[in-house]
Amino acid sequence: MQILITGSYGQLGTALQDIIEKGESEIGPLPESYKYANVTAVDYDELDITDTVFTECFVTDAFASLDYTSEGYKGLIINCAAMTNVDACETDYETAMKVNAIGARNLAAAAAAEGVKYVHVSTDYVFAGDASKPYCEWDTPNPATVYGKSKLLSERYVRETCPESFVVRTSWLYSYVGNNFVKTMVNLAREKDSIKVVDDQVGNPTHAYDLAHHILKLADTDEYGIYHCTGEGICSWYEFAKEIIRLSGETCEVIPCTTEEFPRPAPRPAYSAMENLMLKCTVGNEMRPWQDALASYFKNSKE
Ligand SMILES: NC(=O)c1ccc[n+]([C@@H]2O[C@H](COP(=O)([O-])OP(=O)(O)OC[C@H]3O[C@@H](n4cnc5c(N)ncnc54)[C@H](OP(=O)(O)O)[C@@H]3O)[C@@H](O)[C@H]2O)c1
Q1: Which atom of ligand 1 is nearest to the CA of 15?
Q2: Which residues are catalytic?
Q3: Measured from the CB, is residue 84 less than 6 Å from ligand 1?
Q4: Which atom of ligand 1 is nearest to the CA of 147?
Q5: Which of 25, 32, 60, 231 can pair with 290 through a Cys bridge, CB separation 3.0 to 4.6 Å?
Q6: Is pTM, for the whole model, over 0.70?
Q7: pLDDT tens readout for residues 146-197
Q8: How far is the CA of 43 from the centre of ligand 1 (A)?
Q9: How many A from CA of 82 to the centre of ligand 1?
Q10: 30, 20 Cβ separation under 8 angstroms
Q11: Whether residue 75 has its Cβ less than 6 Å from ligand 1
Q12: If DSSP codes are grouped into helix, strand and coil, which group holds residue 39?
């Protein structure tokens, strides 16, 4: 199998590379098809996905050595590249649309032209965030932020451009590399005696390695479509922070506060939890409870 991973320096991109190399994740072994996978992993410095012509040429070259006549032939693009700074998207509308929507479309078009499968990663921010029960795949998106709008457009472009595609929505992602809430809380706890964290926004924390595992499981099938893939269980940022500080061994006090006390350029969803319903109906939902995945993150970080 030939795999192209874009946004390879990011949280998800590195997780995918790591588990493909090991042949397994913390959840379990990967499908056999990944055993001899040949991975090309690139980030912005080698492939700027907003460049339509260059992206098309790059993808053609990346899959040039594939033997299309061979029965075992498989090609796959996993797009992990994105502008993920939600507040920056709010002020830099144009870059957000170029990277998140046009970039995703460029890769989807190149995947369709090459006849390879395509995985695109999206977000809970496509929803309004005012629900009272977890969003399912059939719920109607209605994003409130530029980031959410750019990702919703990306989903539409991908589905219109590449029939053999998977759109996988996730949320509250953290990993061993990159910037994320877990690292921010641990760093703050080392500097301060107490931190205030919002308690009126709830969602699903997601370990990037668990997401990577399910993306590879899905991509090994022909069950194209939209999927939700988040850690199991719902919590507020305050509850998440409390558990992070407890597991980190720091002694900092975590104090609940309201969204009003922490105004941000991009409005944050009050309720953006999602249910992994279509995973359950297809390849199976093995996403771990968020507390277990977080404990495993701290165990592995210390080792
Ligand atoms: N992080 C979350 O909490 C979260 C939640 C829900 C969904 N998601 C989605 O999950 C996916 C993976 O997120 P992540 O947290 O792994 O992202 P990440 O860590 O921010 O990594 C994204 C990577 O893409 C690169 N990139 C930016 N613009 C690019 C371009 N024009 N061409 C090529 N590469 C470019 C970034 O480079 P620079 O760092 O230099 O910009 C970065 O290395 C994204 O689609 C994101 O929207 C993330």
Answers
A1: 16
A2: 147
A3: yes
A4: 47
A5: 231
A6: yes
A7: 999 999 999 999 999 999 999 999 999 999 999 999 999 999 999 999 999 9
A8: 10
A9: 4
A10: yes
A11: no
A12: strand
Q: Which of 178, 119, 123 is nearest to 145 (CA)?
A: 123
CA of 77 to the centre of ligand 1 (A): 15
Q: Is ligand 1 within 6 A of the CB of residue 2? A: no
* CA 53 – CA 32 distance, rounded (Å): 34
Q: Kindly give the distance from the C-alpha atom of residue 11 to the centroid of ligand 1, in angstroms, as a whole number.
A: 7
Q: pLDDT of 158-168, one tens digit each?
A: 999 999 999 99
Residue with CA closest to ligand 1 atom 19: 10
Instruction: Check if 10 has its Cβ closer than 6 Å to any atom of ligand 1.
Output: yes
**Region of 282 on the Ramachandran plot (φ > 0 left; ψ -120 to 50 alpha; else beta):** alpha
Rounded mean pLDDT, 14-18:
98
Give residue 16's pLDDT band: very low, low, confident or very high (50, 70, 90): very high
C-alpha distances in angstroms, 16 versus 87, 151, 202, 204?
26, 21, 27, 20
Give Cβ neighbours of residue 171 (< 8 Å, ≥ 6 apart). 123, 124, 203, 204, 205, 206, 230, 272, 273, 274
Q: What is the mean pLDDT of residues 225-231?
A: 98
Residue among 152, 155, 154, 144 at smallest CA distance from 201: 144
Residues 32-89: pLDDT tens digits?
999 999 999 999 999 999 999 999 999 999 999 766 555 556 899 999 999 999 999 9
Q: What is the dihedral of CA 117, 75, 13, 301, to 10 degrees?
A: 110
- Structural domains of the chain, with CATH: 2-180+206-232+273-288 (3.40.50.720)
pLDDT, position 302 = 72
The position carrying tokens 């059939």 is 138
**Contacts for 36 with CB less than 8 Å, ≥ 6 apart:** 1
Task: Tell how far the Cα of 6 is from the centroid of ligand 1, in angstroms.
Answer: 9
